Amino acid sequence: MNQPLGTRSLDSFRDPLRRASVDVSIDVDEGAAASAHVGEVIESSTAQWVAESVRLNGAPAFGQFVRVETEPLPILGVVHNTRTQSLEANRRPSAYGKSEEELRLEQPQIFELLRTHFDVFVLGYLDGTHPVLAYPPQPARIHSFVHVCSSEQTRAVTASEQLLRSLLEAPGLPTDELLLATLSHALDAREPALRQAYVLRTGKELSRLLRDDYDRLSALVGRLKDRMNLKDSQ
Q: How far apart are CA 192 and CA 66, in angstroms?
């Protein structure tokens, strides 16, 4: 992985089993049964992992919360980059001037040489049924399966104020865009009647974290409100 490793604030390491500010637990069995795995870990470190998608062009969405079932603890993360490329490192795909449907009919072997990979920034791990937003004791194991988090799991992770700090402090990532994408998924996981309160709480926390950068804060809060209004109108 070429991106530098992420960081955590000192507060998140003072108590490695620190709970989220709201005591929320998640049902691991329910989340595992909700969907089949969407990828398999092929590269791993403490701060990030790379997974190969089960389907070509089938990676989880940007900002999607995902979970790896691995030992000693399940690991939680967020997708921050996706790419599709050739299996042969020194050979780039060429343009053919035809649609994907035409190419699949005429030259299906082309797609057998392509793979979709996605990069995941590690947010934390599960201590029993509770999400802990700090680096896990061990990185995800190679060949572990990746699952998309259920709505219940997403609500649990996004209930912690540490999530915003972790994303804002992550180096080498498109932090603002990633933050907005994760908050959009957080809104999707909540009932419409609860979204306004979540946006207000998030706005207050962003105001505290970005109090010295008003322009950035104003842009983020404004875009977050726009996304909520768009979801409410759908």
A: 23
Q: At what angle do helices 214-233 and 192-209 cross, to 10 degrees?
A: 170
Distance CA 67, CA 56 (A): 20
Q: Are 42 and 116 in contact (CB under 8 A)?
A: no
Instruction: Express as a percent the part of the chain with pLDDT over 90.
Output: 65
Predicted confidence (pLDDT) per residue in 90-101, tens digit: 788 889 899 999
pTM recorded for the entire structure: 0.81
Q: Classify residue 160: in a domain, yes or no.
A: no
Q: Which residues is 125 bridged to in the sheet?
A: 75, 132
- Which residue range is the domain that position 95 belongs to? 11-150
Number of domains in the chain: 1
In a domain, 137, yes or no: yes
Cβ neighbours of residue 40 under 8 Å, at least 6 residues apart?
51, 52, 54, 143, 144, 145, 146
CB count within 10 Å of CB 32 equals 16
Which residues are 48's β-sheet partners?
121
